[in-house]
Amino acid sequence: MGEQPIFTTRAHVFQIDPNTKKNWMPASKQAVTVSYFYDVTRNSYRIISVDGAKVIINSTITPNMTFTKTSQKFGQWADSRANTVFGLGFSSEQQLTKFAEKFQEVKEAAKIAKDKTQEKIETSSNHSQASSVNGTDDEKASHAGPADTHLKSENDKLKIALTQSAANVKKWEIELQTLRESNARLTTALQESAASVEQWKRQFSVCRDENDRLRNKIDELEEQCSEINREKEKNTQLKRRIEELEAELREKETELKDLRKQSEIIPQLMSECEYVSEKLEAAERDNQNLEDKVRSLKTDIEESKYRQRHLKVELKSFLEVLDGKIDDLHDFRRGLSKLGTDN
To answer: Which UniProt keywords apply (predicted)?
Structure first.
């Protein structure tokens, strides 16, 4: 009947790097079919996967194999006969769980099949020993009779089976030694992987610290950028203030020019002021003279009453004019005083 598929799924196939025993190498470019096969004749189980015309997995399941889930969608197992470690990447955690459960089921079936085979070997060995004893007894007896011939034929068959069993035992011993060596290599690879994991943990810790440092640096840079933006705003305000001050300075310069122009007029005003002062002194002298004349006129009035009647009207008019001139003179003085104060 040959081999029959009992379970099929799809996954990405990987193999461990034979040189480093650490890194995974993809055995397929895309997800391929991975199947469990049962060989009725040999009572054995295999995992087989084919990518096009290339067989990428041909692993016979033995009781000492273990399928390990290393992540939510990835699992692996070691095949000592193929001297490699296979890895499968699934598209979902459910597919990985089903494959792992089937692996455990097939592993238990392989163990039962191995136990049955071992029982058959032990039974055949016991029968062979018994046949050898019976054969010795037959040599001492006569060889006559068809029953003896049949027993001899059976003994020959048992001898052949015993020889084959011994050869199988030797073969299994060699395979057991190979498995032990493979287990030792796998143990070494596992220890190296553990060391690599520790190294990766240290590297992760270093990277995490570096990431924290970079985050703090980014925060500092952002704070510096904020300060720079605030400084830019201050600079903009200062520029506006400088422009305002420059405008005020231009206005002050214009006023200064006007004042300079006015200062050019000051000497002329000073000359006019001196002229007015001279005029004022002359007016004061005239006023003094007029006052002297008034006193003289009053004396003359007292002495000459008869002239007073005739000159009263004239004198009154004269006094009024004189008072007006005096008022004008005082006003003129006040104006000069004010002009001097302003200058």
So the answer is: Cell membrane, Cell projection, Coiled coil, Cytoplasm, Hearing, Membrane, Synapse
Q: Which long-range contacts (CB under 8 A, 24 or more apart) does 79-82 make?
A: 80/178, 80/179, 80/181, 80/182, 80/183, 80/186, 81/175, 81/178, 81/179, 81/182, 82/58
Percent of the chain residues topping a pLDDT of 90: 27
**Which residue type occupies 249?**
L
Amino acid identity, residue 11?
Answer: A
Whole-angstrom Cα distance, residue 247 to residue 239?
A: 12
Residues in Cβ contact with 124 at an 8 Å cutoff, skipping those fewer than 6 apart: 158, 161, 162, 165
266 belongs to a structural domain: no
Domain-located, residue 109: yes
Determine the pLDDT at residue 78: 94
Structurally, the chain folds into a number of domains equal to 1
pLDDT tens-place string over residues 174-226:
766 666 665 667 666 667 656 666 776 777 777 688 778 888 888 888 888 78
Please give the pLDDT value at position 162: 62
Is 107 a member of any domain? yes
Write out the H or E segment, with its range, that includes residue 95.
Answer: helix 93-140
Contacts of 333 (CB under 8 A, 6+ apart): 280
- The whole domain housing 60 covers 5-116
Cβ contact 24:34 at 8 Å: no
pLDDT tens digits, residue range 103-132?
999 999 988 888 887 776 666 665 555 455
Look at residue 22 and tell me if it is in a domain. yes
Give the predicted TM-score (pTM) of the model.
0.39
